[in-house]
UniProtKB/TrEMBL annotation:
Protein name as catalogued: RNase H type-1 domain-containing protein
PANTHER family, per database record: BNAC02G40300D PROTEIN (PTHR47074), RNASE H TYPE-1 DOMAIN-CONTAINING PROTEIN (PTHR47074:SF69)
Organism annotation: Hordeum vulgare subsp. vulgare (Domesticated barley)
A Pfam family of this chain: RVT_3
Residue span, RNase H type-1 domain: 2-113
Gene3D superfamilies on file: Ribonuclease H-like superfamily/Ribonuclease H (3.30.420.10)
InterPro entries according to UniProt: RNase_H-like_dom_plant, RNase_H-like_EbsB-rel, RNaseH-like_sf, RNaseH_domain, RNaseH_sf
GO molecular-function terms, A-Z: nucleic acid binding; RNA-DNA hybrid ribonuclease activity
Signal peptide annotation: none
Length: 148
């Protein structure tokens, strides 16, 4: 990995509607797991600030999902970040589930990650509430993948 990367996520309500979007650049990425874990951590902070207590985390990183679902296993390069994510989940959320979502069904996050990696003037952008117009293209792409 080049040492830089992007992250992005969508926060959805119980009806599946996007209620928040965030993207950003990570200048000192260790590997793909690090960018995935960083995005997860940032998403947890945002939903916690919104007062959400029941969460469903979906990631296209099988390694992240396996690591978060298993006890221990925080000794890798981003072990401290993984441990912080686990503690945040257990301390701040009443109900949670962590599952794998193949990249073909996760085009929104994939597109947002690419957008985040291209940010130059600011390290991150958060859009609470109704997502911006360009995000609708990603959302539509996700729905099309689910129908295929």
């Amino acid at each position: 990995m080049s040492g830089s990367g992007g992250w992005g996520f969508v926060v959805r309500n119980s009806n599946g509607e996007a209620v928040g979007v965030a993207v950003g650049r990570l200048d000192h990425a260790q590997d793909a797991l690090h960018t995935e874990a960083d995005a997860c951590s940032r998403a947890l902070h945002l939903v916690q600030e919104c007062g959400i207590s029941r969460i469903q985390i979906e990631s296209d990183s099988q390694l992240l999902v396996q690591t978060l679902n298993n006890e221990g296993n925080e000794m890798g390069q981003c072990g401290v970040l993984i441990k912080e994510i686990k503690e945040s989940i257990f301390l701040n959320f009443f109900c949670f589930n962590i599952s794998f979502c193949p990249r073909t069904c996760n085009r929104v996050a994939d597109g947002l990650t690419t957008f985040g990696a291209m940010l130059r003037d600011v390290p991150q952008v958060v859009w609470p509430g109704h997502p911006r117009d360009f995000v609708h293209c990603y959302l539509a792409s996700n729905l099309a993948a689910l129908v295929e």
